[in-house]
Design a protein that fits this description.
about 290 residues; alpha/beta; Rossmann fold; about 15% strand; binds iron/sulfur cluster; about 40% helix; 12 strands; 10 helices; Cobalt-precorrin-4 Transmethylase, domain 1
Length: about 290
């Protein structure tokens, strides 16, 4: 029987990434000189494609040296200091902060300004661009919790408001809520907000069915993608024969021995075209 290969119908860029890429493409096609603060998406192939169109990636250090230039802010969002630099240096911002992230930034900022008595905690990855943008809403005071053992960074005597980075898993967040609750002393309150992106949460649910429907799943994503790692781990839970690949060269022959169906999936930062390329390359290799 010929090998069946199916691309996950729910995979492909999320709307936040599509929006950022479209903004970059429009400006570059109009011949504008455009800088991007950080990689536009955790996807090496897409970064290289846009670099070939003229997009210049700068880090925060190089950004601080720019003047009178146009700069794209990617979907992850930025702290207020980035906007202050733009104003001081007459930078024109093409702001592609995802509306979901923007909304979360506003909620955190509101709690910080209106309720100074509470401590704000963020369940997320240290140093991740989105998390830096969120912590920036609190003048650096929010406590980042990456794993349960980090709860000792909190003051157990203070009322606490907990938010999650948009791309974390619901299960991980539930476990963190329990860990924080156990750590806080009796009489203190814990308020937690479900701020996980619906697009990511939806993918987690749909992935189970997709992963279980195939003998092997090839998961395409960039090594730096935070949601990619989470989605892939989720996929592997339902199908232990799940492998991370960035191109057909990574696919080992033994993975496909005796296999009749292969699923191809990816992160919210994986382009549909990359998954199609992998499928076509696999078909050519058969
Ligand atoms: S994963 Fe969700 S929050 Fe993040 S950029 Fe995509 S749509 Fe926005």
């Amino acid at each position: 029987m010929p090998l069946q290969i199916e691309i996950d119908p729910h995979a492909g860029f999320c709307f936040g990434v599509v929006n950022a890429i479209q903004k970059a493409e429009q400006a570059l096609s109009a011949g504008e000189r455009l800088y991007c603060l950080g990689d536009i998406v955790h996807n090496e192939a897409e970064v290289a494609r846009l670099a070939a169109m003229g997009l210049r990636v700068v880090d925060h250090e190089a950004y601080a040296q720019l003047h009178d230039s146009k700069v794209l802010l990617r979907a992850h969002g930025e702290p207020p200091s980035t906007y202050r630099t733009a104003e001081a240096h007459r930078l024109q911002l093409l702001d592609a902060t995802c509306p979901v992230v923007l909304q979360l930034q506003r909620r955190i900022s509101q709690v910080y300004r209106q309720r100074p008595q509470v401590q704000i905690a963020i369940y997320g990855k240290y140093g991740h661009a989105e998390v830096n943008g969120l912590v920036g809403q609190t003048e650096g005071k929010a406590v980042v919790l990456e794993q349960a053992s980090d709860v000792d960074r909190l003051d157990p005597e203070r009322d606490t408001v907990l938010f999650s980075q948009t791309t974390k898993s619901g299960e991980g967040y539930e476990a963190m809520i329990r860990a924080v609750r156990d750590y806080l002393h009796a009489g203190t309150s814990l308020e937690h907000h479900d701020t996980i992106c619906r697009q990511v949460a939806g993918r987690m649910r749909q992935m189970r069915e997709f992963a279980q429907a195939h003998d092997v799943v090839l998961f395409v994503c960039g090594a730096k993608s935070s949601n990619g790692r989470i989605l892939m781990e989720n996929c592997r839970r339902y199908n232990p024969h799940t492998y991370f690949v960035s191109s057909v060269e990574d696919v080992r022959t033994e993975w496909l021995e005796g296999v009749s169906s292969v699923g191809i999936s990816g992160a919210t930062s994986t382009a549909l075209s990359q998954m199609e390329e992998l499928r076509n390359a696999l078909l050519n290799r058969l």
